Amino acid sequence: MSTPLSDYHYELPEELIATRPAPARDGSRMMVVDRASGEISHRMFRDFPSFLQEGDRVALNNSRVIKARLLAEEGRIEIFLLEEIAKRRWKCLTRPGRKFRPGAVVAIAGTEARVLEVLPGGERIVKFLSEPNLETHGHLPIPPYFKRGSDSHDDDRYQTVYARTPGSVAAPTAGLHFTPDVLASIPHSFLTLHVGAGTFLPVKSERIEDHFMHEERYEISAGTAGELNAARRIVAVGTTVARVLESRKEATLEACSGRTDIFIYPPYDFLRVGALLTNFHLPCSTLLILVSAFAGRDLILRAYAEAVRERYSFFSYGDCMLLL
Asked: Nearest CA to 45 among 317, 321, 324?
């Protein structure tokens, strides 16, 4: 089966792209989509707990976004940290390329970075002379479509209230709506998937099945595995959680860690995820394709068209959708 990328395009007025969060985390709007009936209703996120049934378990990603953007010479030089592969040794994106040839040393973030290797994809492996203080020198890597730099407000609101394990370079944004009170009112479990920069990469192949999916690190604890195995239904908060759970094909979930490059696109039979809370995603993105696999492309595109008519806010700081 060949599926053209153009099947996942929709028109979005630019003014519906949220570049700042709602005043209150749980004050976002929530579109509720019933996959069986096709019915669409409009609620607020604070109503989310009322849609849970006995035996449900909500699965959340507790990865914490690191301040991955390091700048020097008033922003003319940048190292974007992707993954720490050994002590003080990082896989990075850099600019400009001529400053980061093998052997080059760049003063940045209160230390020095030496370029060890240039990878085939253009990424650099750099080693820092001393541990860079990301909290002091780093900048939060907010999405490029915000068209602005990060500030102290983003330091708080571009993290989930339950973020614990540092490693992501983009937020698991479906979780941004949760408050401590909402979290305390629902049965929940945490897993970890460190969101990579690949989440922003566009699909360039016209046939979606030809897309090369980025790889991300994950971990599921024994406690979480047991809780999810016992659940009647798993409610995944975000596509990151869905990707972790669907990457595990064994009948009984076990404690594990690894890397996943799973690309979920129609047709796909979900093994573990029974309901999905997610934000509204970019046209022709792997995330939109994943939710289309979960609820059906026609229903999702109809829901998105209604979201545009109803003036929902879109993308990372936008409103959310609950797929039942």
From this structure: 321
Domain ranges of the chain: 5-65+143-323, 69-139
Helix (H) or strand (E) holding 299: helix 297-309
User: Token match 């053209």: residue?
Assistant: 4
CA dist., res. 212 & res. 257, Å (int):
22
Mean pLDDT across 96-101: 95
Q: How far apart are CA 172 and CA 241, in angstroms?
A: 9
CATH class in words for 69-139: mainly beta
Q: What is the pLDDT of residues 1-52, one digit of tens each?
A: 568 999 999 999 999 999 999 999 999 999 999 999 999 999 999 999 999 9
What is the CATH T-level fold of the domain 5-65+143-323, as seen in this structure?
QueA-like (3.40.1780)
- pLDDT single digits (tens) 133-179: 999 999 999 999 999 999 999 999 999 999 999 999 999 999 999 99
Q: Using alpha carbons only, what angle is made at residue 308 by residues 291 and 182, rounded to the nearest 5 degrees? A: 60
Q: Residue 303 carries which DSSP code? A: H
State the Cα–Cα distance between residues 217 and 261, nearest whole angstrom. 9
User: 3-state SS of 132-193?
Assistant: CCHHHHEECCCCHHHCCCCCHHHHHHCCCCCCCEEEECCCCHHHHHCCHHHHHCCCEEEEEE
DSSP per residue, 14-55? GGGB-SS--SSGGGSEEEEE-TTT--EEEEEGGGGGGG--TT
Rounded to 10 degrees, the C-alpha dihedral 270/41/58/298 comes to 20
